[in-house]
Amino acid sequence: xxxxxxxxxxxxxxxxxxxxxxxxxxxxxxxxxxxxxxxxxxxxxxxxxxxxxxxxxxxxxxxxxxxxxxxxxxxxxxxxxxxxxxxxxxxxxxxxxxxxxxxxxxxxxxxxxxxxxxxxxxxxxxxxxxxxxxxxxxxxxxxxxxxxxxxxxxxxxxxxxxxxxxxxxxxxxxxxxxxxxxxxxxxxxxxxxxxxxxxxxxxxxxxxxxxxxxxxxxxxxxxxxxxxxxxxxxxxxxxxxxxxxxxxxxxxxxxxxxxxxxxxxxxxxxxxxxxxxxxxxxxxxxxxxxxxxxxxxxxxxxxxxxxxxxxxxxxxxxxxxxxxxxxxxxxxxxxxxxxxxxxxxxxxxxxxxxxxxxxxxxxxxxxxxxxxxxxxxxxxx
Length: 381
Description:
By secondary structure, the protein is of the alpha+beta class. Among the domains are: 57-66 and 150-227, Efflux pump adaptor protein, beta barrel domain (Elongation Factor Tu (Ef-tu), domain 3, Beta Barrel), CATH 2.40.30.170; 71-145, CATH 2.40.50.100. It is 23% helix and 36% strand. The chain contains 7 helices and 22 strands. It has helices at residues 8-18, 25-30, 36-42, 291-294, 305-313, 326-333, 340-380; strands at 31-33, 46-48, 51-65, 71-74, 80-85, 92-93, 98-104, 113-117, 122-127, 134-135, 142-145, 149-157, 169-173, 182-189, 199-207, 218-235, 240-242, 245-251, 258-263, 265-270, 273-278, 285-287. Helix 1 (8-18) runs antiparallel to helix 7. It is elongated, with a radius of gyration of 40 Å.
């Protein structure tokens, strides 16, 4: 029985002589290889995939507003004339700071001066006083608003509001600021719905110590209605293909400037991200920006799979990406005639016949050895 493995040796020898297995044809068909100029022209960007929290959200548009009751008016208790005005619209003021000086109409030499001071910290949002102007107790000289906190009033579609409750979290972006989203929670709903727009008002309160938020500023809200952990997701711009056959482009782990078209199965989408159920693994580098343009890049980009593998491995490959065997190298070196293809085919056929003959001879030899051993055992018996 120990000799039974011997017939397998010629078959292994044949495989070695005829060359290594070629690269997966599916990988060849789905690989797009660019040169450095092509990558720059397409302005490709990638992200590394990972499992993270996936939020299901409701999108809403909102506006920044002053919080009612967080402002006050500066006026004079006595009639007189404004002799000095120390602030103007947009100035930040501190509690106790002198804002306006009013000269009293009461007789005196000089007439008494009344200093009007800030009641709390804030910003001057309206000014109706200039130096030399007569004033009376009925005049609202300055309006001061405390904008350390602001409201964002969101227009939430009525049909999407059922899962939103007080305390619901949201990520709020401001196009005018272009910064990272700010997290906030729903403070309360407005007292009245908008019948024309078919929406209800959701009020969110935000800290505004930097004073960058101003009334009327547009806000874009992703209101989080549910969350799931350990979900693989990619930006929606990374997904290409028709609805029945979605794909993404993954940076090849081995070849430089190469991208593999990977079929994916998608799940929920929300806030510009889409869940990937099948087709990706953590650590894959997925093309985001430029993926749409990459889907139109054909094979005529000047770089073949063979050239890319030659550069990556430092030695030559066949056109299908497989390794060149020693026999192929010798055959290629002696290829100076037009019948090279014929000779190569003839050589391969001869090797096949030879290995078949050797295999049959091995079987006959083993059979003879086995018969002789049985005869010897019977003779001794």
